[in-house]
Amino acid sequence: INTRLNVKASQYELKELAETFNHMMDRIESDYIKQQQFVSDASHELRTPIAVLKGYADMLDRWGKDDKEVLQESLDAIKNEANNMQDLVEKLLFIARNDKKTLKLNKEEFNINEVIEEVYRETKMIDTSHDITSSVCQGVIIYADKNRIKQAIRIFVENARKFTPEQGKIDISCTRDDEYAIITVKDNGMGIKSKDLKKVFDRFYRAEESRVKESGGHGLGLSIAKIIVLGHRGKIKVKSNYTEGSRFSILLPYIKSVD
Ligand code: ADP
Questions:
Q1: Distance CA 13, CA 236 (A)
Q2: Where would I find the HAMP domain in this sequence (predicted)?
Q3: Which atom of ligand 1 lies at the shortest distance from residue 201's CA?
Q4: How many CA atoms lie within 13 A of 15 on its CB side?
């Protein structure tokens, strides 16, 4: 900051200045392109639910007054689609407002096993069509935002439920190494092709199979999980064999272990 280029700058200084300037412009340009892409992808995602809402409103207008069945069906569909849209808009806002550097964290010390148990219990309650198991590890205390960590694990679990057929297995567990607490959600569902593995954490990315299946997702969950984990200086990993299942892990640095 204290350095100023001499007005009578040398050729070398001018070259350095020009390079710095160009580098800065490259970054501004690439940020701008990314933002444009985000706005365009977000608008595209919002188009479908809006078209569905309009379709049902149209149906109500034409037949809803006389036909009680049409009335109920349309109202249910409108409520459902409005909920989906609300969910989508919340995800878009999270991504637009946060990145790993700006994410605000409400940190506290807690045992990693607490979040495993809480997510396991709530999943068991809402999902009776999968075989859900969990195992805790020798405890470690982490200093992290508990709600955000739970949100990231829930994203893994939600995906495991979506992409694993009924009666399939979902396991939520934890281990530790010298540095990290490792939370893993493993399923024996449809798996991910190796060509898609690198991209699943990208915004709006959905593997072809999930687009065909119309799982209702928008390809935003894993990019939110990634922001949360990187915001904690952690790591996020995936391993998967197509048709056999997937394993998503979060690695978080811990402050101490409790034996
Ligand atoms: P979505 O809302 O589509 O689930 P995500 O960002 O959470 O968005 O996931 C991106 C894509 O990664 C999914 O559409 C799917 O193709 C793939 N994926 C994520 N989790 C799993 C899983 N457990 N099994 C198979 N595919 C998965």
A1: 42
A2: 1-33
A3: 6
A4: 3
Nearest CA, atom 8, ligand 1: 219
The pLDDT score that the predictor gives to residue 4 is: 63
Question: Whose C-alpha lies nearest to ligand 1, atom 21?
Answer: 159
pLDDT tens digits, 8-39: 767 888 888 889 999 999 999 998 998 999 99
Residue in this structure with the two tokens 């340009």, named with its chain if needed: 29
Q: Are strands 169-176 and 131-135 parallel, antiparallel or unpaired?
A: parallel
Cα–Cα distance for residue pair 221/22, rounded to 1 Å:
35
Give the count of alpha carbons within 13 A of 216, CB side only.
11
- The model carries a pTM of 0.88
Pocket test residue of 172, 197, 210 for ligand 1, highest count of atoms within 8 A of CB: 210
| 35-43 long-range Cβ contacts below 8 angstroms, 24+ apart | 38/95, 38/96, 38/203, 41/203, 41/204, 42/92
Torsion of CA 27, 31, 33, 37, to 10 degrees: 160
